[in-house]
Amino acid sequence: METFFNPARQLSWTSGPFLHFLVLLNRHDDYRAYARAHRVLFSGFDEHLGVVPEEWLHCTVQGIYTPTTVEQTEQLINAARREIAGMRPFTVQMGPTWPGVTAVTVAMYPEAGVAELNKRVRAAAEAVPGIELRPEAAKFWTHSTLAYVRDGDFDDRPLNRGLRSLRPERVDVTIDRVHLVNQRQDPAAGYYTWEVVEEFRFV
Questions:
Q1: Is 150 exposed, middle or buried, given 0-12, 13-18 or 19+ CB atoms closer than 10 A?
Q2: Strands 177-186 and 191-201
Q3: pLDDT value at position 98?
Q4: How buried is residue 119: exposed, middle or buried, by Cβ count under 10 Å (0-12/13-18/19+)?
Q5: Cα–Cα distance between 129 and 38 in angstroms, integer?
Q6: CA 71 to CA 77: how far, in whole Å?
Q7: What pLDDT, on a 0 to 100 scale, did the predictor assign at position 6?
Q8: Which of 5, 119, 140, 169 could form a disulfide with 115 if both were Cys (CB 3.0 to 4.6 A apart)?
Q9: Shortest CA distance to 96 belongs to which of 84, 104, 88, 86?
Q10: pLDDT at 57
């Protein structure tokens, strides 16, 4: 595996924290339990993984990786309200858990609901003068991260085998809101934290 918080990624966050749109999965007890089922396995890799505490579980819908002014933030909130007005609650299944190159992630299916939400909040951000987004991916990757790799210099085969053997039962989560947060990177701890700026509920 490779270190997630590499020098380039840390450098890109030096002017942070940054506004992000997140689905706060810490609100869902079933998903917290799903994440908790991996703790014993992860504890064997404490030196190498930044395990995301339950209170910081999330799905990133859209990040804004440039500083924003108070005025831009207000414009973004108003634009997001307009774009999200037509969203309806939708349900996704959390799982399976995948070992990746720089993180251990949880799949979220079907992907269409979060992908649609991403499209709407991107449109909101693009409507605000001065906000520039990173290029849009060909296909939005809907996922949640359980652990980031803090030090990739280890034999990851036991982790891979452990995840393959563990396979906790997948859980359903109904997404009925998205949050705009001020997100910060914590490389020492090995995960991200945030402060909520605004909540947008679906009808």
A1: buried
A2: antiparallel
A3: 95
A4: middle
A5: 43
A6: 10
A7: 92
A8: 140
A9: 104
A10: 98
Residues 65-118 pLDDT 10s: 999 999 999 999 999 999 999 899 999 999 999 999 999 999 999 999 999 999
Own/partner long-range contacts of 160-164 (Cβ < 8 Å, ≥24 apart): 160/99, 162/41, 162/44, 163/38, 163/41, 163/97, 163/98, 163/99, 163/104
Return the residue matching tokens 């930044």.
Answer: 50
Q: State the Rg of the chain over Cα.
A: 17
Residue 164's φ and ψ, nearest 5 degrees, are -65, -35
CB 93 within 8 A of CB 139: no
Per DSSP, the residues of 136-187 read: PPSS---EEEEEEES---S--HHHHHHHHHH-PPPEEEEE-EEEEEEEEEET
DSSP 3-state of 87: coil
CA 19 to chain centre: 13
Cα distances (Å, whole numbers) of residue 195 to 161, 162, 183: 36, 34, 7
SS3 49: strand
